[in-house]
Amino acid sequence: MKGESFATLAILYSEDPGSSRNGGLYNAIKRGMFVKEFEAVMFSLQDGEISDVF
Question: Domain-by-domain residue ranges, the chain?
């Protein structure tokens, strides 16, 4: 795992059906599509930034 890209790890290990096939990325998203706690973190990040696990 060391040295693997985030996208590769997401494809291999993510349990999120909404993003795992996309390497952990969500495309064409807007507010109101996810639970409030997730959106609060998601919309606070800059491009390329990764949140802590929550």
Answer: 6-42
